[in-house]
Amino acid sequence: MLSDNLKTTGSQELLEFVKNVRGREYVGSRFNEFDRPERNKKYKGYSIRLKTSYAKQKPKNDPIDRLERLLLSGFGMNSIKFYDHQPEMLWSYPSAGACYPIELYVVINNAPPLEKGVFYYSPHDMALYKINNENIHLHDNLLEQDSDDDIYIVFTAALWKSCWKYSYRGYQFCHLDAGHVITNMRLLANTLGMDTSTYTICNNRSISKLLNLDAIEEAVGLISIKNFNQSREISNSKVVGKDHLSNSYTNDPDQSNQFNWEPISSFQKEVYAKNLIPKASWLSESRLGYENQNFDKLLNLIKYRRSASTFNKEKIALSDFDKIVEFISHCDFPLETTFVINNVNSLESGIYKLESGHLKKEKIGDFNVKVKELCINQEILENASVALFFSANLGMEDEDLHWKKSLIESGMLAQEIHLKVNEIGLGYSCIGGYYDEEVKEFLNLHPLDEILYAGVIGVDKTNGLKRDRYFLNR
What we know:
By secondary structure, the protein is of the alpha+beta class. 29% of the residues lie in helices and 24% in strands. It is built from twelve helices and 19 strands.
């Protein structure tokens, strides 16, 4: 339960609830009391089954094939890790505490031979379950320019899957996780020749009705796709889709009702009580780091992306670090990036801020021990060469919406960085746990700035406890 002196109204107050403070980290967690929630929703009924492999096939104009390339590559399971005899699925994106709260829906508007309708995508079944035939319009969430696009991908967060482990911090993690998946979809759509608009704000009320969302499931992002069909001359394609719909079911008891949802629901009420009319500010205007990439190369980057679990205590090359800095600058997200340098060749240890593509030295010193302490003493920071923190100034109108958008974009940028760092040959891991206000003070940020996300870069050390099927098979 929450401390009596904590209030539950207003956006600023909610931001206090999601923050870590010494002595009450993840207060309200049910991790040690309840079993892990179901990984994904389950549906029974008619579905479109997707093929499980296309590695040796060339991209086609068939819309079913193109949909498979988006979904299987960007939101699927890539491998299995083994912790002694305990297996754990490895996905195409990282998730805080391996909770994976993101669910994905596809709204088909104009992609023949696929029938119009709303579908839930099950990554476990690798199938699309049709859940709605009618009222497929998303006009309350789209600018006019995107109101009649070919397909839409909607990202929702099943909040309990993250809040079960991380309490109210899990609400923040849900938005960050969504950003990772959104980046995968943007990159894959781009390499397949599709044009996209990425919405980081959603009108949850209208989407909830369309998708039949659960009571504690929230729409957190949307991608609108044009040019999904590059050719209208589709040969040997079967028409899919049936009139009857699939229904969701569960075998697990509902334990989420034993969690105090009031702080999150108060925030949601405040956000969605507004007259949310789609604005250009809902869109992410960031640039793709891997624009116009070869599909097979991008697929391999996503498929072999791995989160580091420990680092060797080694310096990384300045040339490699410069590539990472240049890459972040190119992506041009409306976020502030601060580096804490610990072990980079020819670069003094200390705190640096990225401003207009250049590093600005803020403070010199060895802060490795301090950063580890501020990040709740997570062992991975022990030998990290670089720690980086994303922040944004929230002192503006609609602070709550800006916070949600900034979290999504932090996850988007982190996924791009993760792929780039792995491509260079270094290790990367996302860090979501830290003492927010203490990190702000340590980095000397503006009082209205909020820390959104963190990450670490270093020389990856092979960890025998995390054996990966792909690498075991080599």
